[in-house]
Amino acid sequence: DAVIFSMIQPTGVIHLGNFLGAINTWKQINDKKRPDQKIIYGIADLHALTIPKKDYSSQLKTNRMEAIATLLSCGINPQVSTINFQSMVGGYHTELFWYLSCLAPLGYLNRMTQWKDKKSGDQTKERLGLFAYPVLQAADIMIYKGTHVPVGDDQSQHLELTRYLSERFNAMYNVDYFPSAKTLYSKSKKIASLSNPSKKMSKSSEDRLSMIYVTDSPESIREKIKKAKTDSISDTFYFDPVERPGVSNLLEIVSGFQQKTMKEVEKDVSQLHDYRSLKEYVSDVIIESLAPIRSNYTKYTNDKSYLESVIQQGYESSQEIAHKNLTDIKKIIGLSNDF
Ligand code: ATP
Ligand code: MG
User: Transmembrane region positions (predicted)?
Assistant: First the structure.
C-alpha cells in the first residue's frame, strides 16, 4: 500500500512557495485519496530547533498552533489525512534517527546544499542538529515506511539521502523492509523570492518583502507584488527564467494558482503591455485564490478546542503505525528479547 508522507516546519506562516510547491499538492492528494493509501502530514517542530533562538518557546508555541490552522485552512481534511506534530511521536522518529545515523556517511551529509547554505562557517558555533537533520528527515519518512513524498525542489537532495539510507539498511540487514520513497513534485516546484529571484522564497528570510504569506491582506499582497523585482527588457511578457527571472516567477505563481500551463498563462497576459498592468493582474489572481484560505484561517485560529482534537486524533493514528514499525525495525537489527 502507498504511504504518502510530508512535513512542514513551524517556522512561520506559510508562503506562496510552500503553498504552490507543497501544500497545494498535499490537498490534491487528500482530495483524491484512495482506500489503499495512507496520508500523513506533519508539523516538523523538532526540525524547527535546528537553528536555536534564545527565548523562542512562546513563539514556537504560537507557530505550532498557526501551522495546524494553516494546513486546515488550505483544505487538508483531518478525517482523510492524519495531521501530527513530529515532537509528539518524537521518540519513534529520533530512535530511528539513531539507527540511521549509524549508517549515514559524514561525507554525504557534508555535501547537502541546505547545510552549506545554513551553516555559519564557524566550527565552534556549528551544531550537530543542523548537520544531522537530513538524517532525522529520512527517519521521519521511514518510520511510516513512506512511499511517496510531495515536496518542493529544494528537498530533492534530502529525498535522495532517504532512498540511500533505505537501501543501506536493507542491504546491511539483508531484508526488503524499507520502500524506496518517491519524490512527488508539483508543477511549480520552485517559487523564487520576490525581492531576489535568484534565491528561493524562504520562511526563514529576514526580508518581509521577499515572500507573500497565504494569510496576507489584499493591500499587503498588492504592495509586495508592486515592489517585486522584475526587469526592463520588454513590455511583452513571456517565460524566460534565465533572462527574466523576476517576471518568470510572477508567471509561475499565476500558473500555479490557476493550474494552467505556461503557454496558457502567456496567452492570458499577451494583452498586457506595461509592468504595472502585469503586476495588477498577478495581484488579482493571488488575492482571489487566497481569499478562502484567509477566511478559514481566522475561523480555525479562533477554535482552539477543535485544533486540539485534530492533534489528538493525529497523534493516536500515527503513533500506532510508528510503534508497530519501530518494533519490526528493532527486531531486524537484533534488538529484541525473543532469545
Ligand atoms: P525555512 O526557510 O525555515 O527552511 P521554508 O520556506 O523552506 O522554510 P519548509 O517548512 O522548510 O519551508 O518547507 C516546507 C515545504 O515547502 C517543503 O516541501 C519545501 O520543499 C517547500 N518549499 C519551501 N520553499 C519553497 C519554494 N520557494 N518553492 C517551492 N517549494 C518550496
Ligand atoms: Mg526549508
Answer: none
Nearest CA to ligand 1 atom 7: 202
pLDDT digits (tens, 9 = 90+) for 114-163: 899 888 888 888 899 999 999 999 999 999 999 999 999 999 999 999 99
pLDDT surpasses 80 at 12: no
**How many residues are given for the chain?**
339
Domains of the chain: 2-190+303-333 (3.40.50.620), 215-299 (1.10.240.10)
The predicted model scores a pTM of 0.95
Residue 164 has pLDDT above 90, yes or no: yes
From the candidates 145, 200, 224, 279, give the one annotated as an active-site residue.
Answer: 200
Among 317, 313, 273, 267, smallest CA distance to 72 is for 313
C-alpha cell at 306: 477543535
As beta bridge partners, residue 252 has none
Cβ(254)–Cβ(290) below 8 Å: no
Is 155 near ligand 1, meaning CB less than 6 Å away?
A: yes
**Catalytic residue from among 118, 182, 229, 330:** 118
Provide ipTM, 2 decimals.
0.98
200 has catalytic annotation: yes
Task: Decide whether any atom of ligand 1 lies within 6 Å of the 154 Cβ.
Answer: yes
Q: Calculate how far, in angstroms, residue 121's C-alpha sits from the geometric centre of ligand 2.
A: 19
125 flagged as catalytic:
no
Nearest alpha-carbon partner for 159 in 30, 48, 7:
7
Q: Which ligand is nearest to the CA of 21?
A: 1
> In degrees to the nearest 10, what's the CA dihedral of 213, 297, 13, 224?
20
Radius of gyration of the chain from Cα atoms?
A: 21
Q: Does residue 214 contact residue 294 with C-beta atoms inside 8 Å?
A: yes
Answer whether 210 contacts ligand 1 (Cβ < 6 A). no
Q: What angle, rounded to 10 degrees, do the helices at 57-73 and 275-301 form?
A: 100
Question: Which residues pair with residue 83 across a beta bridge?
Answer: 41
C-alpha cell, 238: 513571456
Cβ of residue 13 lying under 6 Å from some atom of ligand 1: no
Angstrom distance (rounded) from CA 326 to CA 139: 11
